[in-house]
């Protein structure tokens, strides 16, 4: 985009935003470039950048697109010279790009492509907050959840956003496995000083799948010291794992407790609406790739309903479906979907029974199966019973009277009350939601 076009956009903005907004906020912007859908502006201070982004960002994007320039996002940077003159206290050391030091970031994993629904809204909000930079508010941010629910996607999105907003930040993203590998290599090559220097000089450290270091003593030790040094230096740490810190077996207690010090948020298993939203957003991408293909009504709903394991499986199914339909040159109908994905659909159909649920829940709470089903009303038995009723309602297609019958011939209103009680408790008692999550996963294995 040339400066002429920006000048044109400016004059429209002047009319749209009013004189005083224009001179206070828009005039100080200096257009830098438009690349890959990101329009970058130089601003005298971060404050101006943030304010413009929050208050006039949509307007600017709208006007840019209206004038024929495809812009999806805005980025505001303080050029290093302006930084000095504006006396903005630098919070970070200026370093070179770190792409060579960390793992490769997937360019598709951005906030734009992350579909938000009830099960992941808290994790998404926390990730966004960290990605916006500013003072470190929760450290570490600990994201956890089952396989393929978007942890890596969110971490990459944070890294992309941070690099965009503050290119001078030294952001290092890597898996816990890579951390260990680097540590071992450093030990072998007697380069521990370099290792320490590298990890202690970052502004933001992101470690994916931290459960990997559990049981690996020296790696845990080194991780612990790296963690402490960075937290002491007010550097942001973002960690992901497949379960909550307290649930990671063979992870040292002192690490568990450090990991719990910040904000721990989980990505819950997807619900129907989220799965449908994800499918719809992926179909838009495929539609551009396979413009000749038509997808019949009801196919996405069918997939969202039937494939509830994880998003990766859902995505894989869609990719296969489009590839197959393009190969045979046919419309994507329900029939074609069932033919093409019969194995995936069968695997997703694993049925959980009420009896399996009762067994798992009684094992988890260490009570006898007969006490779960029997008449005892003590809370020690009643609570696990209600949890099992809740899971039976969620995970099986049994009706309330059928569930009641399997719990020692109880009435359907008792089941209804139990389910409601657990729903209430989940909202205020994180122990209950954690237990449910663990049980749900164990039952799906
Ligand atoms: N909410 C979402 N919106 C869009 N895509 C999503 C969402 N959640 C997951 N995905 C996609 O699903 C796939 C798996 O996600 P990701 O790799 O982030 O999972 P993960 O939680 O890190 O899994 P693992 O435990 O196996 O490492 C990715 O392609 C990701 O883009």
Automatic annotation (TrEMBL):
Q: Which UniProt keywords apply?
A: ATP-binding, Cytoplasm, DNA replication, DNA-binding, Lipid-binding, Nucleotide-binding
**Keyword Transcription regulation attributed:** no
Q: Which InterPro entries match?
A: AAA+_ATPase (IPR003593), Chromosome_initiator_DnaA (IPR001957), Chromosome_initiator_DnaA-like (IPR020591), Chromosome_initiator_DnaA_CS (IPR018312), DnaA_C (IPR013159), DnaA_dom (IPR013317), DnaA_N_dom (IPR024633), DnaA_N_sf (IPR038454)
PROSITE patterns, sorted: DNAA
Looking at the record's lineage, which domain of life comes first? Bacteria
Q: Which GO terms describe its cellular component?
A: cytoplasm; plasma membrane
* BP-aspect Gene Ontology terms: DNA replication initiation; regulation of DNA replication
The Swiss-Prot or TrEMBL record annotates one GO molecular function as:
ATP binding
Q: Which residues form the Chromosomal replication initiator DnaA C-terminal domain?
A: 353-422
**Spans annotated as Domain I, interacts with DnaA modulators:** 1-71
UniProt keyword annotation of Cytoplasm present? yes
Gene3D superfamilies found in the cross-reference section: 1.10.1750.10, 1.10.8.60, 3.30.300.180, P-loop containing nucleotide triphosphate hydrolases
Q: How does it assemble?
A: Oligomerizes as a right-handed, spiral filament on DNA at oriC.
- Indicate the family of this protein: Belongs to the DnaA family.
Its function? Plays an essential role in the initiation and regulation of chromosomal replication. ATP-DnaA binds to the origin of replication (oriC) to initiate formation of the DNA replication initiation complex once per cell cycle. Binds the DnaA box (a 9 base pair repeat at the origin) and separates the double-stranded (ds)DNA. Forms a right-handed helical filament on oriC DNA; dsDNA binds to the exterior of the filament while single-stranded (ss)DNA is stabiized in the filament's interior.
Q: Domain remarks in the entry?
A: Domain I is involved in oligomerization and binding regulators, domain II is flexibile and of varying length in different bacteria, domain III forms the AAA+ region, while domain IV binds dsDNA.
Instruction: Indicate what this protein is called per its UniProt record.
Output: Chromosomal replication initiator protein DnaA
Q: Which organism is it from?
A: Yoonia litorea
Q: Tell me what gene encodes this.
A: dnaA
């Amino acid at each position: 985009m040339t400066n002429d076009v920006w000048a044109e956009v400016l004059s429209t903005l002047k009319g749209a935003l009013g004189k005083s907004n224009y001179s206070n906020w828009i005039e100080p912007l200096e257009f830098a470039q438009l690349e890959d859908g990101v329009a970058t502006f130089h601003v005298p201070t971060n404050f101006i950048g943030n304010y413009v982004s929050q208050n006039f960002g949509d307007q600017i994007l709208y006007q840019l697109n209206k004038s024929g320039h495809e812009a999806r996002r805005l980025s505001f940077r303080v050029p290093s010279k302006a930084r000095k003159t504006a006396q903005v206290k630098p919070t970070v050391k200026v370093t070179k790009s770190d792409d060579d030091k960390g793992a490769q970031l997937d360019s598709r994993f951005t906030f734009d492509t992350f579909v938000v629904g009830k099960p992941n809204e808290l994790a998404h909000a926390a990730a966004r907050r960290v990605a916006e930079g500013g003072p470190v508010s929760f450290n570490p941010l600990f994201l956890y959840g089952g396989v393929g629910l978007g942890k890596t996607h969110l971490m990459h999105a944070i890294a992309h956003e941070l690099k965009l907003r503050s290119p001078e930040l030294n952001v290092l993203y890597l898996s816990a496995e890579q951390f260990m590998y680097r540590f071992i290599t450093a030990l072998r090559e007697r380069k521990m000083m370099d290792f320490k220097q590298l990890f202690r000089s970052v502004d933001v450290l992101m470690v994916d799948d931290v459960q990997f270091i559990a049981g690996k003593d020296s790696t845990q030790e080194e991780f612990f010291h790296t963690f402490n040094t960075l937290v002491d230096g007010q550097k942001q740490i973002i960690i992901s794992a497949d379960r909550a810190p307290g649930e990671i077996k063979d992870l040292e207690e002192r690490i568990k407790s450090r990991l719990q010090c910040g904000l721990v948020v989980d990505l819950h298993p997807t619900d129907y609406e989220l799965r449908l939203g994800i499918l719809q957003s992926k179909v838009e991408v495929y539609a551009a790739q396979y413009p000749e293909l038509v997808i019949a009504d009801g196919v996405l709903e069918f997939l969202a309903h039937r494939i509830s394991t994880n998003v990766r499986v859902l995505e894989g199914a869609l990719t296969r479906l489009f590839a197959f339909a393009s190969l045979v040159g046919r419309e994507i109908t329900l029939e074609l979907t069932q033919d093409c994905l019969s194995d995936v659909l069968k695997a997703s159909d694993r049925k959980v029974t009420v009896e399996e649920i009762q067994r798992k829940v009684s094992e988890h709470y260490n009570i006898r199966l007969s006490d779960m089903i029997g008449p005892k009303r003590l809370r020690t038995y009643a609570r696990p019973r209600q949890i099992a009723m809740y899971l039976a309602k969620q995970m099986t297609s049994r009706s309330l009277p059928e569930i009641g019958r399997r719990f020692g011939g109880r009435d359907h209103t008792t089941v209804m009350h139990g389910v409601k009680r657990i729903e209430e408790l989940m909202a205020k008692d994180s122990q209950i939601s954690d237990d449910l999550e663990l049980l749900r996963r164990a039952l799906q294995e």
